Amino acid sequence: MNDQTDWIKSSYSQRGMDNCVECRTDTGRVLLRDSQHPAHGHLTLSTAEWRAFLHAVRDGEV
Q: What is the pLDDT of residues 31-42, one digit of tens each?
């Protein structure tokens, strides 16, 4: 996995803008990082935690 090329930028991000969240998957986990500060590390969630987060967003809880 290449740390610079395997990250996926949100489809809601405006072209040419770096103010979004990027993610990638890695064997049962989802990694998230701030595209403006990729060297500052990332947040790691299990796939179950990621699914719960997405459901909470879709349900308006977040």
A: 999 888 889 999
Tokens of 10: 């949100």
Give 7-60 pLDDT, tens digit per residue. Answer: 988 777 766 665 688 999 988 999 999 888 889 999 999 999 999 999 999 999
Q: Which letter, b or e, does each residue of 20-50 get, where b requires 16 or more Cβ atoms within 10 Å of its Cβ?
A: ebbbbeeeeebbebbeeeeeeebeebeeeeb
Alpha-carbon dihedral angle through residues 34, 41, 23, 56, given to the nearest 10 degrees: -80
Phi, psi angles (nearest 5°) of residue 2: -90, 120
- Nearest C-alpha neighbor of 25 from the set 4, 41, 1: 1
Q: Provide the H-helix boundaries in 1-62.
A: 47-58
